[in-house]
Amino acid sequence: MGRGRHGAGRGQGRHQAFARGAGAAGEVPQGRHACAQADRDRRQPAAHRRRQGRQEGAARQVLGRPGAASRVGRAAAQRLAPSLVRWGSAQAARNPERGPSDTVFYRRLGRPSASGNQMGLVMIRRVYRSRVRIWACLLPLAAYVAWVTRPLAQTSDTTSPLPQAQRLPAVPSVVSTFAGGDGPGRPGGTIEVLAGSDRETRMMTLLGYTRLIAFGPDLTLRPDILESYVVEEGRRFTFRLRPGHRWSDGHPFTAEDFRYWWEDVANNRDLNPNGPTVEMLVDGRPPAFEVIDAQTVRFTWHAPNPYFLEAQARALPLFIYRPAHYLRQFHVRYAQPAALRAAMQRYQTSDWASLHHRLDQMYVNDNPDMPSLLPWVPRTRPPSTRLVFERNVYYHRIDERGVQLPYIDRVILNVVAPSVIPLKAGTGEADLQTSYLKFDNYTYLKKGSNSFPFEVYLWETGTGSELALYPNFNHADPVLRKLFRDARFRRALSLSIDREEINEAVFLGLAHPSNNTVRPDSALYRREYGEKWATFDPQQANRLLDELGLVRRGRDIRLRPDGRPLELVVEMSGDTKEQADVLSLIASTWRQVGIKMVYRNQSRDLLRQRVTAGQTMIAVWAGVENAMPTATSSPREFVPATQGDLQWPRWGLYRESNGKAGEPCDQPEVQRLIDLLGKWERATDEADQRAIWHELLAAHADQQFTIGVIARSQQPVVVSRRLRNVPRKGIYSWHPGAYFGIYRPDTFWLDGDRPR
């Protein structure tokens, strides 16, 4: 995430950039006084030019003193156009993102944000050349004066006509812990983030991690948007909303928003032909939904639903509510036919359901018209190379002093080519950046931090393995399928990987050799889960391969049972240097035990198609997503559950489709995992759930259903030196962390002005 210096005005002339900053109209005030002054100037051009030269030369001497140009520029603006300064203040308050870009000033003076000096130079040049141009000069400059000299917290105080007490719920959520240890901060300011496309507006749903129920720092679930919730028998869930809580447009957030989602979205066959999502079903049956009162709703199933609460807290949450007052205008049940047809024409959709889908993208977060409960709401509609998000003045969290969050007023996503994001982050164009940064960028970034005002932190990755090998239990070749299903073969592959060498050569010794399992800081971790069959032991690997009848007979490469050379093709998606280096080292040590390995890159979609079709031998992907589970977390990642399971896709598809597609599992060791998942789903006691988890993890360590390589590698995190409360050490995880989200970015704050 990052702050770019390439906003409005890049690639344009100075006058175009200034006009853009002045406002959409770009009009130049003119009148008889300005015309008369122009006539006087034309009557004495020589004297005028000589006087201009003397005065500009003297001014340059004055401007040579530190800060002098800033004082001259501001004084001139106040003296010559006080009314325009007031006008500029109003314009800046209404359109803060349209202020002139720092790029203009950076280019002129060679250092970022030298706004005062640049303003002084431009003011002097304009004033002494022709007073006819004073107005054209002062309009954008006056706006800029107000924009750059505003108090840091001004936007926080002026973006809503209501006082804070009327914007907050009756019982706001109070934040008293700050991940970075810098404590409560001051509101205001803008951070800028680098994005690889304008579709990455969804990044803000992670950065603004706000959920009905959220993960706390200890990974336990706690109310967030909700004031409270009660669970009875694991099947009855009562949610209590915060009285007085409002959407970002000021409309009350009530039980009606849940009712609309359940009745008019989730169970509407035009919008959801397949009915509610799997998290809302138990044994294929939906819950009974009740509106208790304006602030209370209840979902009741016939049996326990262990997935429901966690689904609210995920990085990609379930979103069981909608802004009904906004979306009803696009719903056939509520909208007037003529108005609905007009909206369909405006958005170029063929039917009302497509229209509703297009405007109802809670996670994508790209519709500025749609009210939100997140800390920052979109103000720019894609496509755009500069996406502006402004603070939600009705946000429900406050700090321990009673100051409303978020502290930061604006987050701007600057869209650039993904390949240049590491380069731009390394030259100080990022306030907060992890996207598109890899560990092999670390040296460059660290060097850049010596010249530019940012720091580079290293967070541990939160997956079970940086990359893991997924042998395909459903491979179309019966010989390979039998090998992959034999635990001895999988153990031999694991024992033939020199993880210590990989760690030193690729990760500079900063990662940790491990199976694909939970992290050591998980309450469910046991040492054997990470280490069993994970040491480099080619002698034992050779014994296991000999037991399988994979003979060598003096050859370099072993033979398969059908007499063909044992050659394994490993397929990956992404083709990063990191992956290629790791696989190259694995190929070398597998060769020592008589297995030839080649690897190749595929697109993500093609790789998944080939896996499901049984055409891949071994796929490479990141390890388990949630490597920090608790006993109440879902263990579905360790069990055939979906078509996306790379090691047993057809068994997963069979269960996902309720037997309509795929194949039933026919391997006892894997069927045992499925049975354990069923027991966990029915358990209501946490101790029972914990015992089931341990049995699952022990089975994975022993059977090597997937083969982990390296865990807890390092993720570079670029952080502006002005930005506070970003932890120096953290865990970079999609789930349950939502990357930055679990560290509460609404509590990040800016300390001081932009560095000179």
Automatic annotation (TrEMBL):
Residue span, Solute-binding protein family domain: 221-630
A GO term, aspect molecular function: peptide transmembrane transporter activity
InterPro entries attached to this UniProt entry: SBP_5, SBP_5_dom
Compartments where located: Periplasm
Biased composition (Low complexity): 14-37
Main location: periplasm
Gene Ontology biological-process annotations: peptide transport
Protein name: ABC transporter substrate-binding protein
Similarity section: Belongs to the bacterial solute-binding protein 5 family.
Coiled-coil portions: none
Region of interest: Disordered: 1-71
Entry-linked Pfam families: SBP_bac_5
